[in-house]
Amino acid sequence: MVESRQIAAFVVLPVAFIGFISNWCVAIVIRRLSSMQNSFGMITTSQSIANAIHSSLFLFYYVPMLLFNIEILKTYSQYCGHMLLIAYDLSTYSHLAISLNRFCAIYRPVQYDKIFSKRNTFIIITISWMTAILPTFYLYIYADCRFPYLETFWAFVFTTTPICKTITLYADFLKYNTIVCMIVIIDLITVSKVRNFKHKVTGIVCQSHAKKRKSEINFLKQEIK
Asked: Where is the G-protein coupled receptors family 1 profile domain (predicted)?
């Protein structure tokens, strides 16, 4: 008889597998495409790697742990949880960097190549990785806040120590909500600019077509006369 934890594993399995394949493929393909050897491609690759690591952990750690009830994986699940937090942080920071990249491409097209030069992009990616990795060793190891697998919910959850509650409030809930709000605002501003530009271009094209049509009609009238 299939147990509840195994059902949870079967539910996660296809999602993790698709995420594993698609994100690693994106990371590899971008590295090989000459047209993507730019700032946007570099940051997207970084995000794809983070997402791929996240999916890989679920595919090769979480799913077997639940499917075969492997106790040793449950015992050391806090380390998998730690890696999941790092991967999620990196993906979130990369998403913010991509939003800023698009914003600059639309609002500062002349300065874009200077702002997001390969050197600056490398610095941004390095900062993203360091910001995602280094603080976690203090927050989730030294500060006695863990993110292990909990059998009751078949999920990774934070421990309920007082310090962990504080950390999850500021370093998890408030941080992610702030970044997500920033991404949404930046993307909305960018999309708004693109829409306005599109309307202007459409208006110019329509005026050009109208002038051309009027000229053709005048020419036709002259021919008739």
From this structure: 22-225
How far is it between the farthest Cα atoms of the chain? 95
Q: State the first-to-last Cα distance of the chain, in angstroms, to the nearest integer.
A: 92
Cα atoms found within 13 Å of the Cα of residue 11, Cβ hemisphere only? 9
Specify whether the CB–CB gap between 139 and 145 falls below 8 A.
Answer: yes
Each residue's pLDDT tens digit, 23-60: 999 999 998 888 888 999 999 999 999 999 999 999 99
206 CB neighbour count, 10 Å cutoff: 10
Amino acid making up residue 48: S
Q: Which two tokens stand for residue 171?
A: 């370093």
State pLDDT tens for residues 74-106. 999 999 999 999 999 999 999 999 999 999 998
Among 130, 105, 108, smallest CA distance to 41 is for 105
CB 60 within 8 A of CB 21: no
**C-alpha distance from residue 183 to each of 40, 120, 178, 197 (Å):** 16, 20, 9, 21
